[in-house]
Amino acid sequence: MSTPEDEERLSPLAQRWPRASKFLLSGCAATVAELATFPLDLTKTRLQIQGEAALARLGDGARESAPYRGMVRTALGIVQEEGFLKLWQGVTPAIYRHIVYSGGRMVTYEHLREVVFGKSEDKHYPLWKSVIGGMMAGVVGQFLANPTDLVKVQMQMEGKRKLEGKPLRFRGVHHAFAKILAEGGIRGLWAGWVPNIQRAALVNMGDLTTYDTVKHYLVLNTPLEDNIMTHGLSSLCSGLVASILGTPADVIKSRIMNQPRDKQGRGLLYKSSTDCLIQAVQGEGFMSLYKGFLPSWLRMQSDWITQVLPMRPSPVFSKEESNPDHLP
């Protein structure tokens, strides 16, 4: 006769360590998605940093020599000027970042949902709890992943530096971490963390709120059922709203992370996120905050698959269940 200890030992890994299993599955899915969509992320970063007005203060002529070319022409330019494989430059720290962010976000969300907030008496998880939990989980995950994000952004710009005749900053991923740590200390690894977590909070708020609202509307007011088509349409809308809310913070984050620094690790272009925002709007116009919007939105759809679906409870509800408390 088996004992409870034997039954626990023989039970599947996913039942014994559910959160660890979700972390591993999320990391694997994130790696695949990262490899498939990374050229979009690289193009987005190049567009966000291109044409910085703040470079004029340093006497850098890069702003005049690099006209704004749009997503497609920028991607083609990278292939023609640097080589096809350069579309994946910086993918290794990006994978590190995606695993840390996705896993940390999911584990935090599960903890908030099960321990802090809890489900309502009818076993449903209210929308407001989902939004707050998603925002908090996104902030935690993004803060943990900031060092990898920093290295990713800087490595994505190495090809551009080479074309401009500037010396390369890093020999590889581990050299990048070591150099940043040596020059700026632990604090240097978290450069740009403020706009980074702001973006995470805004993206999660727009994503979760819009997704559930659109899905609820489609199921109740159209012939569509709770199926993959409904999920896809809801994802399309939620990604659009999330990109509209999060792109300005993403632009600020990329510029602060990529700016040149002195020997003490202090930025030479921007004193803070607010200073970067002001200089961008004054020198380039308000729409400069939306550079890289299109590749960001396109990439958001793959992030929805690997990050949002595994953490969002999605019970099937019928058209008769019009009570907002039944939102997944």
TrEMBL record:
PROSITE patterns: SOLCAR. Solcar repeats lie at residues 21-115, 125-217, 226-317. It catalyses: H(+)(in) = H(+)(out); chloride(in) = chloride(out). It is a multi-pass membrane protein. One of its GO terms (cellular component) is mitochondrial inner membrane. Transmembrane segments: none annotated. Keywords: Membrane, Mitochondrion, Mitochondrion inner membrane, Repeat, Transmembrane, Transmembrane helix, Transport. Facilitates proton transport across the inner mitochondrial membrane and may dissipate excessive proton gradient associated with oxidative and metabolic stress at neuronal synapses. Regulates glutamate-induced proton conductance in astrocytes, shifting the energy metabolism toward aerobic glycolysis and lactate transfer to neurons for ATP synthesis. Can transport chloride ions with lower efficiency. The transport mechanism remains to be elucidated. Homotetramer. Belongs to the mitochondrial carrier (TC 2.A.29) family. This is Mitochondrial uncoupling protein 4. It comes from Delphinapterus leucas (Beluga whale).
